[in-house]
Amino acid sequence: MKRMILIDGNSLMYRAYYGMAAVGNLTTNSKGLFTNAIYAFARMINHLIQSDYDAILVAFDAGKKTLRHEWMSDYKAGRPPMPDEFRMQIAYIKQFLDIMRIRQYEQPLYEADDIIGTMANRAQKAGFHVDIYSSDKDLLQLIGPETTVHLTKKGMTDLESYTPEVFKERYQIDYTQFLDLKAMMGDKSDNLPGIPGIGEKKAVKYLQLYGSLDNIIAHKEEIKGADGIKIKDNVESALLCRKMATILTDFDLKVGLEETYKKEMDRDKLISFYQELEFKSLLKELMPPVKSIVKTNIEVVDDLLRLKEILLPYSALVFETFDENYHRSPLLYVGLKNRLGTFIIRPEWIGQSIDLQLFLSDSQNHKSIYDYKKAYVLLKQMGIELNGIDFDLLLAGY
Length: 398
Description:
alpha/beta; Rossmann fold; Nucleotidyltransferase, domain 5; 2 domains; six-stranded mixed sheet
């Protein structure tokens, strides 16, 4: 079956920016341009397109005012303004998509969700399986037999993937009841009150009993106590919330399915783009591999038990960051080599593995390293002392 990838561009941009900004990593290039959102967004897209697919579309909101503002004037009111450090990066993110030859689209009065919903509907009718990527739970209403919604938690490596079966297991109701669940719970981020005092647990309870919001309203006199009063007093609010949250799946979308078919990126322009923004690690990944007599199999360590096994004395270490300014740039990975092989250790393992922390701090556990100073600074920021270093290859190079 053909596969289509649909991406909530606004959601991914915000995730890219705040994922690094939240920990103080607002990276810049030498010209002073903030680059953290561009870099993280490019990383996420590059990760996504490693899988097989036939069509791809990134949807964006076209502006602040949408059809929904005609139904509710204070829709999404109260959201904080976009930081200037983020705003200046958006044009570069869209330039990156153009260079990658990934179709991006926005349409006045409609939200990215509506574009995704309508394109997903068209794609399914054309025989595609659809994979949707966003951090917005509203898109769970698009789940179906041939549509999977992937909610991003951390980049593109930590996802919650929802099929109809997974949704049923998680919420204990059918995926077709999601909109009614949302209508009752409301959504503070969109300024939708729903039924105040009715949270997920109670909403699920009444949907299990009555099947739908309409049926709950029809039987509202049967519901006793405080819940019954809340439901009776907020019927219009719940119905409006459902209307506002409903993603359009058949509006007059001006972009055709054929425009989303997979295309080859413009490699030369991408190299220039990475060079301008000083994305050295992305540039290295893009360049053809240097032929070497020695072939090395690199293992990415995926669990704590395996990590413990490879922490041997006389290992060689290297700490890689997103860019050269390791005082501000986050850790990308730790490379480790010893008689068992060559390994990539994810940065999150440092905080989660006591064995790794002891390995790094033990002065009796002899290790060699490339750039002791960088490693020392990075680990110091995490509250870990680096000890037991017998040899620094960078220092020896001088």
